[in-house]
Design brief:
By secondary structure, the protein is mainly α. The chain contains 9 helices and no strands. It has 2 domains: 1-48, Arc Repressor Mutant, subunit A (Orthogonal Bundle); 50-171, Tetracycline Repressor, domain 2, CATH 1.10.357.10.
Amino acid sequence: MVRADARENRARILAAARRALAEDGDTSMNQIAQLAGVGPGTLYRNYPSREALVLAVYQDAVEELVESVPGLLATLPPLEALRSWTTALVSAMRKKHGLGAALSPGAHQSVAEQSYGPVIVAIAQLFDAGKRDGTIRADAEPADFLQLTGALWGATTGAEERMLGLILDGLSAHPRR
């Protein structure tokens, strides 16, 4: 069992790394340790390399995103929950892409493999809710949706919203004409 102070240190390191790397992908490990209020030894004990820390930051973001689905569905209609969730997904994809220089090709592959299943499950939850209430087409597939949204992270601001609107219109059981 992990001690409470060790869990707190880990959480502070991840939060500091997430903020710092979002601002500057070249932030050093020592700068991250300082921002987290821990010593370098504590940082390296938890994350032995920069790549391990970057992977943990990304995995933490994916877990947060996946865990947000029930809350979104509790407060929004399924199609709007899907819109909100997809916007957050695109943001996470952009951050991952921005951290790309810090990851080896093998790490990129590992991230994709580790996050694919949970992301597909999250999309399926959103789709199932929409299929139950009749707002999402019965033949919509989570893997197809994920592939389509992959194009959104590279879109310019403004175009991203229009493109997402087109994708969601295509999913709608009652598309706007």
